UniProtKB/TrEMBL annotation:
Annotated keywords: Repeat
Name of protein: Pentapeptide repeat-containing protein
Transmembrane segments: none
Coiled coil: none
Provenance organism: Aphanothece hegewaldii CCALA 016
InterPro entries in UniProt: 5peptide_repeat
Length: 175
């Protein structure tokens, strides 16, 4: 599927794009609010400034994607692959990122207030200047991430039973 087809079908009120392949697609500034892209391959895609508020991206592959300044307010990003993704300036307030893989992700100046970061792999994640106020960071090791200048006030941070942020459910991101 290409960007044009996705936009047209979404405009015609189709919202379920479960498992579609959109590798390297450009959807800059697209309004995809409440779309279902569960298990979709969006690796290396450009979704900068896109509106994905309330979207379901559960188990999607967004590795190395440009998600800068995108709106993910209230989005479902459970078990999503965000390895090396650029989420700088993105709004992830209230988003559910439980068991997501954020290794080497850029979250500089991102808004993660009230987000769920339970059992997330944060190895080498960059939270410089990010807002994590009130975020739930349980069984995730924040010490392996750069939190310089980040707002961590009111975060629920517990590394009890931390398994390095890696869920035993992770097997592969081969497709």
């Amino acid at each position: 599927m290409n960007a044009h087809e996705l936009i047209n079908r979404f405009a015609d009120h189709e919202s379920n794009f479960n498992g579609v392949s959109l590798h390297q697609v450009s959807l800059v500034g697209a309004n995809l609010s409440r779309i279902d892209l569960s298990r979709a391959d969006l690796s290396e895609a450009n979704l900068s400034k896109a509106d994905l508020s309330g979207a379901c991206l559960q188990q999607a592959n967004l590795s190395a994607a440009d998600l800068s300044e995108a709106n993910f307010v209230g989005a479902n990003l459970v078990e999503t692959n965000l390895i090396g993704a650029d989420l700088s300036g993105a709004d992830l307030s209230g988003a559910d990122l439980a068991r997501a893989d954020l290794r080497c992700a850029n979250l500089r100046y991102a808004n993660l207030s009230g987000a769920n970061l339970t059992e997330v792999n944060l190895d080498s994640c960059d939270f410089y200047g990010a807002n994590l106020e009130g975020a739930k960071i349980t069984r995730s090791d924040l010490s392996v991430a750069d939190t310089t200048g980040a707002n961590l006030s009111g975060t629920e941070n517990s590394t009890e039973d931390c398994v390095g942020g890696v869920s035993p459910k992770w097997l592969t991101w081969a497709g």
